Each structure stands twice: as structure tokens, then as C-alpha cells.
Amino acid sequence: MFKKPLASHKPWSPLKNSERRKLAEEIAKTFAVSTELARLLVPDGILTSRGITHLDESVTLYACHLTADLPAATPYDPLWFRIGKSSNDLLVPSVYTLLRYPALLSIIVTAPMVIDKLAEGADLFRPGVNTSCLRRLPPAYTEGTLVAVSSGDDSERPCAVGQLSATPEKLARAATGKVVITLHAEQDHLWMSGTQSEPQRIALPTLEAEAASLALDDSVQPEEVPEALTKEAAVEPAKMLPVELVDALLEQALCYAVVNTLPNKSQFPLSASVVYSAHILPARPAAHADHIAQIDVKRSSHKTLAKFLKAMAAKDLLTLKEMKPEALVLSINKDAAPLKELRPYKTMAKLTAQARASEAQEAKEEASASSISVTDVYKPHGQTVAFFEKTSRSKDPLTAAQARKALIDYVDKEKLIHPVDPKFISIDPLLGQTLLKSNENVDAIDRSDAIHRLLQHCQKMHRVQLLGGKTELRKGTPTTVKVEIKARQGRKVVSIITGLELYGFLPERVSSELQVACASSTSVDQVFGSKKGAMEVLVQGDQSKTISDYLEVQGLPKQLVEVIPLQRKKK
User: Fold this and answer.
1) In the sheet where 493-498 sits, what is the strand order?
2) Is 0.90 topped by the overall pTM?
3) Which CATH superfamily is 479-564 part of?
């Protein structure tokens, strides 16, 4: 939506308090977060404006300064945008908002190289998506559900936001097609309209956003935590944890938080809900992960957060100030008696971090299998065979770095560094046979020249990793996929793609997906005059930019795409 600047944009105006409250209520309901968190996501001083995108779509923007005392000329950071003119239209968080609270949306992990393309308006396609991420999405998600996209380099940092193109089940089964329709990404024009700096995160963590709405007195009934957040099935009565055990585990979690995660004195007081959601809940023991939803103050003997903290204050773990609408934790006591019985254990926070690290690793591995790589290699040949048999004990192709290492190791082992100039290598009989021409008679050679000669005398090859992870060894230099722009009848032009089969692409599938991406008619035919099996994809119009972007998103490196522009006839 924002790969180009807005076509028009009205001046910013303050959002009325009543409208701000309505917006916070909408966020709380739509994204299943607490009222307190929703208010933090719509800060004081938020502004609004209307605009028209380059696609002629109406959009309402909400923005503000996220840091106090900024110069008046500092741009506002866009926090939310609404696609359409009606207040019932889709409300979307910006990347700035997702960076403030990454848990707002489920995250899909993709390869780092794909992220740049999203900012240019590309959608996220199936080959670049980690299957495990799709399988972890809640089954209730449908086409159009908002999700965030992150890079495998940092799976917890959202870089883009978009809508699912189908249900997670269908997407996980599919091998191709769109997964996320991109609405906004870091480095697009909406992002660039702000300060372009990463905002400070809100303290409330992932799973526990709903905890902020816990009743702090007996008169308020506790709400059910949404299934999409807890991912917990209904628990049968026979499997319920005893109330006494829930009490003990919550106290254990508080003790762990007091010792390990709660901040120093200068950052107190803290609200009761922040202490509970940001420190106690993540410190619950991972040994009870199967029943984690039951380790909740609502299922304890205390029933409310206020009563639980009051009981902990009686044990001298903390100092509590009871007030409306919410109690405050004024301080903690790291010398309290219950802390002496605390032993190290694995927390839910550590378990979640390990799961995310594992997911990021899976994303990298799957991205590798979903991308194409080409590596230059050199096969021992002719006069170099004897050298590599002695040094590497192999006739297999080597990379330039491996061949260089073999030469340097041999020189060091045989003590062939020139005594006068270390940049030179003394020539022994084996190196003479390997590096020198038949009519050459020298006793030393420059080290870099020696490496160059060694590679030159090998057979040049390249190793290709195809889509799906299959590897092939090929002679010579890599062949490019050609995108040639040709003239047809009159002033019409077409884009013809050849060489797709060399890297594992199915021409029929490419044709089908480019028909949508280019909004043009496409066809597949055999390349005229070529051997059987060589196919070409024809796309109406000069689509070289879209085709190049599509191939790169599919995993084909830029250097393997050769665009041949239209050859104009000389007058």
C-alpha cells in the first residue's frame, strides 16, 4: 500500500478524547488485549489525518510523538491506519506499534532477503515461509486475518504486517502461491514518514496481555482468556491442579521474579498488573507447561490479584499500596525468608525463548531449502591432480578458499616461504609441475600469483542448490535466466523468460503466478529451435521489473537474472 508516497494527505489534527476512548476499545476488542494495554497503544496526544494512497484507496492515519520533548519539526510516528472511509473498516497496526508490542499479532518468519521486497510492495509467497510458523497459527485464523512478518535473523522483531491469503491449514499444505498480502513494511513510505527509529517496547509481554484486565477486587468478575492467546484446550475436571499447588507455584514464580527479573528500586512503583503479567507469569515453572493456563491467580485460593499480592506482602516479599483503580507495588525485599528456599528452575519465559530460537533456526534452514544458491568450484585437472592428491587426498571439486588453504598449508608444511621476501613462495618440484609452464624456469613466485595459477589450471565448475534443497554440479560458469523484452505487432511488447528449468522452476506455475503479479495474460510454450524440454514463459507488456522481483522472492539470486531490454530499430 505504501511503496509510494500518499497521493494526498490532509493536515494532522488532535484526536478527541471520546474518539481516543473508542479507538482503544476497538483495539482491545479486535486484538484481544486488556483495556490498559489498549490505552498504551493509543498514547496521549495522538493525532489523526486522512489521505489517499497511490492506488487511490482512502486511508485514515493515527500518529504521535513517542518520545517527549522532541522539536516541533520532528515527524510523527504513524501508529495505526484504517483502510477505507468507514469506522468499521480494517484497523491495522503499523510497524512502529508492532515494535512497541510485538505480541499484538502472530508472527510468520521468512528469509532475511525477502523483507526488503515487502517494502517495495511485494507479497509474501509460500517458498519463502517457514512451514512450522503456519502450523503454529491458531486454526481459527481465516483469510484476511492480520499477521506480522519477521526475518529469520530476529524472529521476534516484526518487520511487516499483512493479511493471510487463506487459512493456515491450506497455506501449510500449499507449495506455492501467496501467504501474506502485504499492507505495510519497514522502510516503505509510511515507515519513512516517521522518525525511522525503533520505539521503546511496552512492558507487558506476549502471552499475558489479558492478565492486565484481572479483577483487583471481589466485585469484578474475571474474564476468560481468549483461546487464540492461550492456545489451551478446555481442561477436564480430572486434570485440574489442586488449588494448594496453584498457590505454591504462583508464590514460587513471584520469588523467582524478586530474585531475577524485577527491577531495581529506581523503577518502582509498578502497577500490580505489570508485576503480574511481566514478571510473575513468565516465571511460572516450565515443568508444568501442560497445565500452564491453570497456574493463574483466578484459579488460586486468592481469586483476585489484589488478595494474592496482599498475602505476599504479609510474607515480606513486597510492599503493597492498595488504591483504586489498581494497587501499586512500592518495593520488593530480596532478603525475605521464602527466598532462601528457592532453587533454580526452568521458567516458561526460557521455554518460550528456546521455542522461538528453534523456530528461527527452522526458518533459516527452510529458507535455505527454499532458495537457490550458486557456488564457484574448481575441480583438480591435468597438472594440478598430483598436487591435490597429496595435499587434500581428493579429486573432488573445491571452492577457491579451500584450494587456497591447500596451497598455503603445503607451503607452511614444506617450509617454502621465501627467506628474503615472505610474499614469495619457493618452487619445489611438485609446485613446479603444478604451477609453471613447460618453458618456465623460476625458483620463486608471488603468493597471489601462485593461487591464481592454481585455480586457472583447475577445471572451472559451479555447484547449484536448487529449490527444494537438491544440489547439482555443473561445468563452466552459471547460466542465467533470461528476461528478454521483444516487440510484437505494432507497438506491443512482451516479456519472454527462458532458462527457468535450470533452477528447478516449473514454467506452468511461474506463468500462473506472474499472471496475477503482473495483471497480464501469460502463456507457456517450447523455446523455438531448442532441445526438447526447454520452455519459455511469455508475459504481455514490459514486465522486467516485476519478473525480476518475483524471481528474487522465489529464491533466485539477482546475478542469475539477465534482463535484455527492448532493441529499438534504428531509423
Assistant:
1) 522-526, 535-540, 493-498, 481-487, 561-564
2) no
3) SUI1-like domain (3.30.780.10)
